[in-house]
Design goal:
Blueprint (H helix, E strand, L loop, with lengths): L1 E6 L2 E4 L4 E9 L6 E7 L6 E6 L6 E3 L7 E6 L4 E6 L8 E8 L12 E2 L3 E6 L1
Length: 123
């Protein structure tokens, strides 16, 4: 197993930026594809971004493309989500997820999850 702990959420005005971090411990971090998902009140958990084990491949949801950047530092066992030009509709609990199975956009592909961090964007 891998344990995941998110941090960096908070309250920000529309147009602002936040950087989320997800620190991993446990099974070898470098073997995992890592992703960010988010869940707004009353909505399903949705895919945001994924990064491959080496950091060389990334993929984003259309709703965040061009505004969010996912990255990882395997030496620090940490994955990041830089969020710029934030919008009120980005308000959600953001979750970090890990999988040994190659990643993807489906929440069912991920077997390890963090506890989430709240991001609130005011208009």
């Amino acid at each position: 197993q891998v344990q995941l702990v998110e941090s960096g959420g908070g309250l920000v005005q529309a147009g602002g930026s936040l950087r989320l971090s997800c620190a991993a411990s446990g099974r070898t971090f470098v073997n995992n594809a890592m992703a960010w998902f988010r869940q707004a009140p009353g909505k399903e958990r949705e895919f945001v971004a994924v990064i491959g084990w080496s950091g060389g491949s990334t993929f984003y949801a259309d709703s965040v493309k061009g505004r969010f950047t996912i990255s990882r530092d395997n030496a620090k066992n940490t994955v990041y989500l830089q969020m710029n030009s934030l919008k009120p509709e980005d308000t959600a609990v953001y979750y970090c997820a890990a999988t040994l199975a190659g990643g993807g956009t489906s929440r069912w592909s991920y077997d390890q999850w963090g506890q989430g961090t709240q991001v609130t964007v005011s208009s």
